[in-house]
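Standup notes
- HV: blocked on the assembly model, inputs below
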Amino acid sequence: MSAPATKARGGIGAHSPGPISRFLDSDLWYNFRRSPVAVIAGAVAFLCIAGALFAPWLAPHDPFNLASLSLSNSFLPPVPLAGSQWAFPLGTDDQGRDMLSAILYGGRISLVVGFCSVLFAAVVGVGTGLLAGYGGGVADAVLMRIADVQLTFPAILIALVVDGIISAALHQLHEATEIYIIVFAIGISNWPQFARTVRGSTLVERGKDYVMAARVIGISGPRIMLTHILPNVLGPVLVIATINLAVAIVTEATLSFLGVGLPPTNPSLGTLINNGNAYLFSGQWWITIFPGLALVIMVLSINLLGDWLRDALNPRLS
Amino acid sequence: MAGFILARVLQAIPVLLVVCFLAFLLFAFVGDPVAIMAGQDATLAQRIALRHALGLDKPFYVQFVLYLGRILHGDFGLSYRLGEPVLQLFAARLPATIELSVTSALLALAVGVPMGVYTGIHRNSWLSRAFLTFSLIGVSLPTFLIGILLILVFSVWLGWLPSFGRGSVVHIGHFWTTGFLTPSGLKALILPAITLGLFQMTLIMRLVRAEMLEVLRSDFIRFARARGLPNRMIYFGHALRNTLVPVITITGLQLGQIIAFSIVTETVFQWPGVGFLFVQSITAADIPVLSAYLILMASVFVLINLVVDLLYYAVDPRLGIERRRPAAAQ
């Protein structure tokens, strides 16, 4: 039933529009334009990503260039307050670093860690899910048992323990490896969700006629999984990935705040908040609050986008 | 019932064994205890003697079995950082963590359930919208940021509440300390408990709301209305009771989240609990404490899942029947 339907839609029709116009014609884009929350959240998320991408060009100062820092500029308040300077609109921290620049660069690191760890979790989870759902049998039982056991522990605890233990074990290693460790730790803490969803959808897809047809003409298992089943199970993966991006960014910020994540030499938003926390009591609230605000805006917009995407791709749920 | 419990306990054993094995690997491969304990001046013969005394020259699997034996006797070794037995460190800090976690769980339930019921009944009132907006913010604010904001407002600006520590505590029995009995202990508990409970509160509120909306649409509610029962009876006697199964399950499972996030809250407020100890131990690479924490957490989570399963079973007896039916059909 589904095989001819797929062919009629995806095959050589009377007109074959390009990907962009096809996207502009899609229900998803229509749905997006109709939802004010989604449009605003999308715009804010886009601004965050653009700010992070173009941080080196947008930032008024280079927070990593030690030569440009001056201690005489330290602890400057943000602009409307007395003693502030327009050169540092959001104030400066204890080392005289411009907060706005530090936030732009920090957001960049937070986003990179978020994207990479979600990608890692998605690749591991989707791979496992396909294998378990399509292969079945012992592989299915073992992989899903592992996922079930891991799901009984909170993801943040897994990330914290994995990151903490690897960091403790590799105590002497260079700080640059921290970013790989944290991506690994957050990624590994989130894969079971992807695996379970993909396994469920794969079980459904496996029984359909187009998979049967592919098997009959002798296409190999891995190829059926990757080129036939995978495209049909990607919808839910996209939703989970979006929501997980917000979770991953918060997890990274939390780990960095606890002092087990990224080092102060390579500060993410969480590291900046941690750094500012020491000056909360001496009245320099802006060192903590502005990075915190940036984090909340970023996470909130991604969360709202994820919620919208879930409803749009799965209208029955709402 | 007994068979069900037994099966669940048997399932938990391999999980705990794997975690113990990981903890053991940590011990065996991270750092060299001989180098740490013997110091730099020790001769080779002294090192070999110490290695023998510690049992480190035995085969790998023998060491693992010995390690398991020691754990079962409560011997988790000495902390590298503090030089005290790990078990003693945990015993001294566990009451603080348990009091904080239980208080915030109760707080989340006590505020979350009424808010959920209210927003479920009055779907479109402005107060419901305010609650929902508030919950969205609660979900999006990371725990540590909530703590920082509360400290900034109530400790730094207003100066009403302490920002760190547990206040003065009272000893009950040999190893339990409580902050419930002193004014400073209670004051110190407020901010951490709100910080830790806020996320669960919003979650419970949304859950109760969704369940209430679902239940209020059902036929037995319509029938209860037709019978002319007062609204209070319908909402609390009929509707709320039927939302309790998922609420209990999720709250039980959220207890795990609370324990996990207590690490964060304890660090923000320098609360002298197990989570704060764990974070300090990571920074100091204090392996004995880390591995003991791993085993403790695994045991706690296995226990929580077991209890939630049993509660589920107790609240909704139909689940037991459904579980039996496929077996009978085969």
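- HV (later): unblocked. Chain B touches chain A at residues 15, 26, 29-30, 136-137, 139-145, 148-149, 151-152, 156, 163, 256-257, 259-261, 263-264, 267, 278-279, 282-283, 285-287, 290, 294, 297-298, 301-302, 305 (CB under 8 Å). Chain B is about 75% helix and 0% strand.
- Next: hand off to the docking folks.
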